[in-house]
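Sorry to interrupt, but I need a hand with the structure work. Leave the record below and I will have a look:
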Amino acid sequence: MSGAQWRPGEVDTDLARRTAGVVHAVAEDGMVRLVRPGGPAWWAESGDLRAATRAEVISVKVATANHRWGL
């Protein structure tokens, strides 16, 4: 997949890390910067990403809300 398919704000899953995160940025070389609410950000190879499942999207949204409210 090309880096152009990953858009900031969408939730994707990094298969190498087995975790979902929100796309923060896409580098010119195709690397994708993901962030997980309350956790560290990381760079992922675009080939290691897939669209998140509905359950993964909900999990990230709940984590975002919890982090925002300090829970």
About this structure: Helices lie at 54-68. Residues 54-68 form the longest helix (15 residues). DSSP finds one helix and five strands in the chain.
